[in-house]
């Protein structure tokens, strides 16, 4: 199943923006909204398809209010694209304590099954939360069979007026970082000599001599 993972914003004031893809990423969605994961859904959820959206939800009033808006925007997109969805909620205490992060990780890895396609947005949440999301993706990639990491995206609003509804924002596709990390780990595990040169060749199209 396709599963889309995102944190609900915790900002007290956050208005819809149009997220514009950077560097030709296939992430277009011309409606103003709150969550970059909707761009991902717009480009990956097919008509008639059943998907799951996993929301990471902290325990404060701003998040709860934003969550209601997010669910409305998701429902509108699902109607436009004619896909079906279920929601899974992962609630956590409003704290950056390591025990909270480990709890999120433990809950998140239970969401994955063999043959899943996983998509995640690391824009929102306190700083440790995106790290937990990436850790969970790595777990799924190694622990389950036939896992495909479809997209890891990050949204960035423009300037001081980013809260205005008519403002634009950027959305970046960061998926290649995941696969480079996986490849780097594999090179090291297999004992390949000078793995940094192999990695540089992939990144820079050379043997790494001119990558400074």
Kindly list the characteristics that best describe this protein.
alpha/beta, Rossmann fold, 7-stranded mixed sheet, 6 helices, 23% strand
Sheet with the most strands: spatial strand order: 2-7-6-5-1-3-4
Major sheet details? 7 strands, mixed
| SSE series | EEHEHEHEHEEHH
CATH topology of the largest domain: Rossmann fold
**Cα separation of the termini:** 42 Å
What count of helical segments does DSSP give? Answer: 6
Which structural class do you get from the secondary structure elements? alpha/beta
Query: What's the gyration radius in Å?
Result: 18 Å
Q: So, CATH architecture of the largest domain? A: 3-Layer(aba) Sandwich
Per DSSP, what share of the residues sits in E-state strands of 2 or more residues? 15-25%
What global shape is seen? globular
Give the low-pLDDT segments: 207-212
Number of domains: 2
CATH class category name of the largest domain: Alpha Beta
Q: What share of the residues lie within helices?
A: 25-40%
